[in-house]
Amino acid sequence: MDLAIACVMKSGGDYSPDWVYKLRAGLERGGLGHLPFFCFSDRDDLNCNTVLLEVGLPGWWSKLELFRLNTYYDWLYFDLDMVVTGDLRPIERICRDSLNAIMLRDFYRHQELASGMMFIPDAIKREVWPGFLARKEHHMKENHGDQEVIADLLPNAVGMWQDKAPGLVKSYKGDNCAERGPQGASVVMFHGQPRPNAVQHEWMQW
């Protein structure tokens, strides 16, 4: 299956199309510009390949549509509030060598998963999407976020980026990047406040 980049932008929230384009530009700087780039969105006027959202899930829950069975790519997914700070080509190599999904280890609760950066092989989508759809109201009520649903439905098929590529991903807050910089990382995840548009550092191009 072909590898492609994916992001998600649901209108009505904090993000605009400009965030999508900034992410794409960052990925190009990081060496992934040769990969197809798609945005899952409820908008059809984006200046990029667009996969229209179908289910009308609220907010971040729209990320579950990355597991739809009618999208025929292995997805390398990034949240919109991340900043590229180095070479991303090792990430591509890891994806091409992996049969399982890869997610982040939560930067604070190390026993839990985070979904800000994911590799989603096409073959594992069937493990998540039908099960989520069958009880989506239950899943959204009983779980705090999409990452918890994915963890429930893929308990034995998830690797961690921090193990696959040690030091390649940092948390802006958790790793004190405001004072220490990216510390050799290629990706800095903002995951909440402040957003990358609210800060300025010499190591950031955003």
Can you put this structure into words, describing what you see?
This protein is an alpha/beta fold. It has one domain (3-167): Spore Coat Polysaccharide Biosynthesis Protein SpsA, Chain A, CATH 3.90.550. Helix content is 27%, strand content 22%. It contains seven helices and ten strands. It has helices at 17-29, 89-97, 125-134, 136-142, 146-153, 161-164, 177-180; strands spanning 3-9, 37-41, 49-52, 74-78, 82-84, 101-105, 113-120, 158-160, 169-171, 187-189. The protein has a seven-stranded mixed sheet, sandwiched between helices. It has a three-stranded mixed sheet with strand order 5-10-9. Helix 1 (17-29) links the parallel strand 1 and strand 2 (37-41). The protein is globular. 36% of the residues are buried. The model has no long low-confidence stretch (mean pLDDT 93).
